[in-house]
Design brief:
Blueprint: H1 2-7, H2 21-26, E1 30-36, H3 44-52, H4 54-57, E2 61-68, H5 75-85, E3 89-97, H6 112-134, H7 145-164, E4 171-172, H8 182-186, E5 192-195, E6 198-201, H9 210-214, E7 220-221
Parallel strand pairs: 1-2, 2-3
Antiparallel strand pairs: 4-7, 5-6
Length: 237
């Protein structure tokens, strides 16, 4: 949304409503499409979303924004190639380094000061990218052939299995879980339900870490086995 705010000073842009996505896309010729990068690849649920709605994207102009913890290579290019096959016109891309959401792996954790610095730098990059866009020179992060090679050999080739399918996770500690339903409410794939007063995962996890980061009892883990930090954007403000 920060990109949109800088780009559209008159406030004419609107967020798409998930409840009527076909209508939202159909009513606009220009779309800003954002998602996180996993292992230099596009998350499966994002790939599925584009392909399931491919007819809606034909002839649309699309600017892609990708967030990453450290490195993404051609993060924007991963969806750009799919969009192009759907008949869309990808006009630019922006890669943003953000605080890593993987809060159950200690090696990936940074200090609060470092994360605030990352947010500040990301906001500056957003502003500069929006300015370039208004000047008719949209940024092209992740869209070059060089970036494609970097993404492929940097991570994607070795970790493709991490994003090719959904996971059976998260891991839920039934002793800690109080059945509040927060995780079920936040899961974008409705992968978690409450049964017999406890959270239960159904085997379609996209590793977004929303459940992990908002569980009041710290009862969930995904890649690791211990909660080191529940990563929420408001913590870094």
């Amino acid at each position: 949304m920060e990109f949109i705010k800088h780009l559209d000073e008159n406030g004419a842009a609107i967020a798409m409503e998930a409840s009527d996505i076909h209508k939202s896309i159909a009513e606009h010729d220009f779309i800003v499409f954002g998602y996180p990068i996993y292992f230099s690849n596009i998350p499966k649920f994002v790939r599925d979303f584009i392909l399931e709605n491919k007819s809606c994207f034909r002839n649309k102009k699309i600017f892609i924004i990708c967030t990453m913890g450290l490195f993404s290579g051609d993060g924007a290019g991963c969806s750009a190639r799919i969009f192009n096959r759907c008949g869309a016109n990808v006009i630019g891309g922006l890669h943003l380094k953000m605080p890593d959401c993987i809060g159950d792996e200690k090696i990936l954790k940074k200090s609060l000061e470092d994360n605030r610095r990352i947010i500040k730098q990301a906001n500056k990059k957003i502003h500069l990218s929006a300015q370039r866009f208004k000047e008719g020179r949209p940024t092209q992060d992740g869209l070059s052939a060089f970036r494609r090679v970097a993404g492929l050999f940097g991570q994607r080739l070795w970790f493709y299995g991490k994003t090719a399918t959904y996971k059976n996770k998260p891991n839920i500690n039934r002793q800690k879980c109080v059945g509040c339903g927060r995780c079920a409410e936040l899961c974008p794939l409705s992968n978690i339900v409450i049964a017999d007063g406890k959270a239960v995962a159904k085997g379609k996890c996209t590793m977004c870490y929303r459940c992990f980061s908002h569980c009041p009892e710290k009862a969930l883990t995904i890649l690791g086995h211990r909660v080191y930090e529940q990563c929420r954007f408001e913590n870094y403000q």
